[in-house]
């Protein structure tokens, strides 16, 4: 039956998730449980709902533009988790609702050792505004940005083993067709784990508020993104220059800036003058301050850095090439092996 064959070959190059429903077309109730709170309702307060799900909120862990993150205790198991409480306003068409739908949808799909695990979620609808509660795996070692500001520059062998874990997590997302779009050390969390690659922490990719499923266009090319998003110092030049961009390549750039920071504790480009920073990116005007580094950077590391922060997105190293890169491949394979071994546990 030729007809069947045709549709098969057409869908061959598509990402796993672009065939299914996308969060933008889904109602909030299709994504999470909605609970009315207030007089005359089953639940009088948000606390009643939290209790109903057998959780207890404890101390504050962190804060962001969205709201607050608390430690939560799952009272059925006494296990500690993290609870991200997002303040959403009471308009269901709010852009924050859009981000939250994406965040939850994506967290449901990405299950991997190096990605923070989603445990439970629901939204409380109150007369003063809606609040989303996301319960997830607790990262009890803080975030990678704070960790690096304490440790200072890492050695190459250390950097490799941490970076390989981040690459494993992001590669998993990319292989499903999801771009993270806000990669930076502050969105990589640490979980104490003596069985991890470095024997101290497991690295967990988090914060999927800006993550999006990517699609192919009619010509079978990956569709371009246009939204300017992310954190400026991690943004690729094509975004800063307001060009349409391929989100996977932009993730690679942000990973490159992250790897540069890991080895130097500095930024590759000086954003005090943003226009100059963009000019330097495009002209590849960046160097290593070897005086601050633990040792002279290896040829392999320098070559990888050049290919990650390549201003030409068409020439920039791809995720597939990155996993096979001379500097990274061994550590990447170790990180992946560990993820495969622990798959059943997660
Ligand atoms: N699972 C978690 N375990 C521990 N701390 C967390 C967890 N999730 C978030 N945090 C803390 O809250 C901060 C903000 O969370 P994040 O998801 O990055 O939100 P935002 O969208 O505001 O950046 C993190 O930098 C971290 O300090
Ligand atoms: Mg964040």
Automatic annotation (TrEMBL):
Known EC number:
2.7.11.1
TM annotation in the entry: 245-263
Q: What class of enzyme is it?
A: transferase
> What Pfam families does this protein map onto?
Pkinase
Which portions of the sequence form the region Disordered?
1-29
Looking up InterPro entries in the UniProt record yields: Kinase-like_dom_sf (IPR011009), Prot_kinase_dom (IPR000719), Ser/Thr_kinase_AS (IPR008271)
What SMART domains does the entry give? S_TKc (SM00220)
Domain Protein kinase: start-end pairs: 55-328
* Top-level taxon: Eukaryota
Q: List the biased-composition ranges (Basic residues).
A: 1-11
Name the chemical reaction catalysed here: L-seryl-[protein] + ATP = O-phospho-L-seryl-[protein] + ADP + H(+); L-threonyl-[protein] + ATP = O-phospho-L-threonyl-[protein] + ADP + H(+)
* Swiss-Prot/TrEMBL keywords: ATP-binding, Kinase, Membrane, Nucleotide-binding, Serine/threonine-protein kinase, Transferase, Transmembrane, Transmembrane helix
Stored PANTHER family: CALCIUM/CALMODULIN-DEPENDENT PROTEIN KINASE KINASE-RELATED (PTHR43895), SERINE_THREONINE-PROTEIN KINASE CHK1 (PTHR43895:SF32)
Tell me what this protein is called. Answer: non-specific serine/threonine protein kinase
